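Fill-in record for MARVEL domain containing 1.
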Amino acid sequence: MARTAPPAVPPPPPGPPPRGSLGLHRAFLRSPLGLLRLGQLAVGAAFWLTVAAHWYEGAAHFALFAAVLVWLLTLGLFGLSALGRWELVPWLGSRWLLANLVHDLVLGVGLCTAAAGIMGHKAGQKSYCNLPGYSQRCLYGAYLGAAVCGAVAACLYLFSGLYCLARRCRDQRDIV
């Protein structure tokens, strides 16, 4: 009597690739984009904290919204890039450099420039209270400081957007 082999058990379906340990992506942190992201986070925080810490009205609400939105999105991009986990983002993970480029040039430059313009306009409206002898509360310095922080943040977003654009034009798909 011939012995028949037991039916072969099919191998289990392949699972998701194993994730490595969670650690910092040091090459990103040392790259120009990583340093620009740190600067954007610092200046962006100074921008929205300056607006939020002082009494604001009218269009300054939009400036605060724009500053906080861009800052939070930058924080998310920085966190995913610093941990090297951008592949986990559906649809954007394979286009991470393009996502950074659009974030920097459209959202970062556009919204920070608009918010800085609003705060600069409000500073111009309050310039009279900078005169000696004016006894009421003066928001000129706060509005001017917020406008300067917004303009510096917009410049940093422009630099990082141009850096991403140069990398994309050289067909370098990786962020570092």
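KEY FINDING: Helices lie at 26-30, 32-53, 60-83, 96-125, 140-169.
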